[in-house]
């Protein structure tokens, strides 16, 4: 194991490979900026080792609240001895000559220089491909960040806190149907009934009561208690009762959701992507569309949940589900090969199929301004006017403060730092960078503002 266990649980080997190969570009005014140090500290712990730092040519007197930059061979490298950090420092004047081809994410830190913003915007506007830009700043009492996308960003898994198992109880395939029909509840003893996994109980009840129009959770007792008077005390039956409400909504809602996502992708067909992961994921979405058209169903995820059941019958059912999941994954691989990608990464196909109900995408702003929206007084004013009735008083106050900052002269405006806000935002920015690099968990969409005084935050989409 070459990473902390908690990191492997969060991002897995797949995510860590992306982190290891990632390169982050920082754009800062001062190389001794405390926020820069905080973000780097977290990213080094996560395993990112390659950094490009574009900084002002001006000679700055060290700020009273600033840190001297820590050499990569000293404290920062000691944070994660397994990697060898590499920093490349260049002046702002080199922005227009940078291709940013290998950059995973650009992080703009406490930087409001008008000329630099204009140079970055021009470079971004004239580039077919460009990495996502994360704007972050601390100006007491506010700490804020803004995600500025050039191309869509795919999230391979949103990692929801609550997951409903996709067991297709109301749409069984032949092997599950045959296995369920082989069970004769009337011939089983009560202790044997207590070992039946809840999907088999629900599947049998659905077919036996198909003429009864009541919801399954209402008619389940009528079906099952005639076989076992003690069933109400059995843990497997209580589990069946708990999941009975979810049977009818899982498969169809999943298909509807995927169809909506695929429809949104119609305008993003392209052959050239900055992020190679986005390109691969688009190929998987095209394959999914063909799979859905042909089989009228989504690929079955391989994860089979634990449940109250006897060991033998549980393992039998688990093997049936996992066999189906493997077959669906292999079908997706075959479709991808027909699309012209015979050497497509198998691990990514499996990751996609296993999270078929939990992937999503973030889209860039249409008709965006030439500067990041959080620095655009026009965008902030428009949002305030459009959302004036629906936003809370606190959100309105945050936006008014942001608007005041945006209307100030960039060069004459001095950011007022705060160590607590810097520490908080440093962790938050690093977290967003990791989300963008690993394509796991949903990044902010697209503005996050934190008020240090009220200890409240808001997420808005400008």
TrEMBL record:
One of its GO terms (molecular function) is ubiquitin-like modifier activating enzyme activity. This is ZYRO0F04290p. The lineage of its organism: Eukaryota, Fungi, Dikarya, Ascomycota, Saccharomycotina. InterPro entries: Ubiquitin-activating_enz. Gene3D superfamilies: NAD(P)-binding Rossmann-like Domain.
